Amino acid sequence: MKLAIFDIDGTLTETNEVDDKCFVRAFAASHQITDIETDWTKYTHVTDSGLVSEIFNQRLGRSPNEEDFLAFKNRFIENLNEYTSKDETLFAEVSNAKAMLEKLKLEKDWTIALATGCFYDSAKLKLEKAKIDVKDFPIGTADDAISREKILQTAIEKSLEKYGLKKFEKIVSIGDGIWDVRTAKNLSLDFIGIASGKRAEVLREEGANYIIKDFTDYENFLAYLNK
Q: 7: domain CATH number?
């Protein structure tokens, strides 16, 4: 059996922009931290838990405790809900993502997992607003680990346990960020990028061999998975 591991923001949902806005606003509201650097490539771990930890240490000189994380998460979710009430198009699916997952579920050689740098609650909210049903898929999130490598490993371990396997014949990571390419390389996983224009060039320069704009052409995507 083969495993396809999907990122969420920018890969299954068009939520990178709204996620960034809500993340920055949550810091200001919950901990009065403003003027945050939003070039995420400058951080060690591009995950919600990693970013919160690094920003806390940079700005407050200490690591966040459980109460700090909870206050941030609650405000972050409030912000996301506020934006959904204003404009649900901010939470649209990446073109044909829902249909692609439904088709891939029927492929006898493939199974699906999710691995995201988001906290679980925010990931769940965004997928629900995009009307993408993922309840049957194992998931690794920023609640499981700070590094993307460990988050992907969590998704793999949960998938192995679910299907009673010791290993997968092939594992492909699907994502949209430069950190997704790097994580796949660090774990020796195959990778498919979801991007177009300049973002696609950035992924290609980082070493991504297969890049698609979205999931409109399912057969092409499946062919890349099987390469």
A: 3.40.50.1000
pLDDT per residue rounded down to tens, the chain (227 residues): 999 999 999 999 999 999 999 999 999 999 999 999 999 999 999 999 999 999 999 999 999 999 999 999 999 999 999 999 889 899 999 999 999 999 999 999 999 999 999 999 999 999 999 999 999 999 999 999 999 999 999 999 999 999 999 999 999 999 999 999 999 999 999 999 999 999 999 999 999 999 999 999 999 999 999 99
Do 51 and 100 share a domain, yes or no? Answer: no
For 158, the domain range is 2-15+91-226
Q: What is the pTM of this model?
A: 0.96
Calculate the alpha carbon distances from 123 to 69, 87, 91, 227 in Å.
Answer: 16, 18, 11, 29
79 and 96 belong to one structural domain? no
CB atoms within 10 A of CB 220: 12
Whether residue 116 contacts residue 9, with contact meaning beta carbons closer than 8 Å, is answered with yes
